[in-house]
Fold this protein.
Amino acid sequence: MSRPLEADPRPLTGEPLAIDLLNTRWIDAAGPHDLLDSVEGLAIWLDGAPVREALSDHTVTADAATLGHLLRTRAALDALVAAPAPYEPEVRGALNAVLAHGRVRRALGPDTPVTTVEWDEPSWAPAWAAADNWLRLLADRPDRIRPCANPRCILHFYDVSKNGTRRWCSMSGCGNRAKALRHYARHSQD
């Protein structure tokens, strides 16, 4: 009998798949963490909503190959969030190398178009899906891909607020800390 998965320990979940992959690293009072530092952590991430939604028709195994592909993809995404567009060839090349392991096939089914995604190996599925999701975010609203405004936070988010002014990974975490610091600074000067 398999052991039930532990709860996802990350402070921010539910972002689009590419950003959710970036957010597998975080810092809290206990220090830095990396959910993808083990196959067990990978299993927790694969069980998350963004992955389940992106790969709903596919079974993905938490194994060393899948983990290696995801770490490679996360490194490519890290380079992209750190570099302004237009991207240098080596920055683009890292993500394009991941995308080269999959392809989208379109065909006409009995009554509707059918889109199928194929990968070189099933272990590439989550990495390729995250890279593909990044392209969709860039095509939609690249200015909405943002780092948290807290300089000690390494999380990112996709701002879906109506006016596009979200600044914090979470208002209950980094946002409240910033408000408390401002309040303390104002009142300590009195």
Notes: The longest strand covers residues 102-108. DSSP finds seven helices and six strands in the chain.
